[in-house]
Amino acid sequence: MTQQPDIIVITGASGGIGGALLEALLERFPTAEIAASYNHGEISIKHPRVSWQNLDLRDEKQIETWANAFRRVDWLLNCAGFLHGDIGTPEKSIRAVDADFLFENMRINALPTLLLAKYFATALKRSPAPILATISARVGSIEDNRLGGWYSYRMSKAALNMALKTLSIEWKHSHPRGCVAALHPGTNDTALSKPF
Q: Theoretical Cys-Cys bridge with 84: which of 35, 55, 89, 168, CB 3.0 to 4.6 Å?
């Protein structure tokens, strides 16, 4: 049986997947304290064991400041993600590739996990069984790409998967009791997936 977490940090907790995960964690671990972040939208879950932080995961300084507030963290779960928005939508062909849209995908889907790992590493190391997990996507698989398109999203998730693999190798030595995981939730009925 896995070690029960006492302190859980979850980013993107106001989104569809993050919110559902937050509800499940509250039910499954009735004594755990949860620190949750949001960037856009309303906080839909108010609970005495949940403390909320407005956090832009594209801002390294904000991540560092938030991480410095924690002495120990058992689970760090990153549920933030980007697929479409005012800046653009997934490309159907190479003609649609736009540098700003591609970089925004990387800034939200890939880079934050590295920054979270960088600044929460010490707090996670103090846990008897630390877990760092991030929502990824199967479309980031090079081998499984049979449809093409969606260049920016696919590239950002492939970069995320490589970052997690590389981190897992490093933390095998520095965090030997820990686990680093990429989670593929599949297509969900959320605002992120709705147009597709």
A: 89
